[in-house]
Amino acid sequence: MSPSLLNPVDRMKFPVLIKWYPEFLSSMFFQNAVGYLKSPPYHFPGSPGLECYLQLNYAATGRNDREFKIQCLLIFDTKYKNTEVSGDFTFAINGIKLAQHGFEFENYGLHKFVGFNNAPYNFGQHFVINLEGNFFIKHISPTPIQIKVDKSIRNLFKNHNGKDFVVYVKDKELNKIKQFKIHKSILQKYSIFFELFNENEKDWMIFGFNYKIVKIALNLCYGITPKFHLNPKEYIQLLKFADTFGMEYIKIVIKESIALTPNNICDYTIFAYDYHEFFYECLDYLNFCAQYDYPIGHIRKLKMHFKRLFKE
Question: In this predicted model, what pLDDT tens digit does every residue of 54-69 receive, in sequence order?
Answer without folding.
Answer: 999 988 888 877 788 8
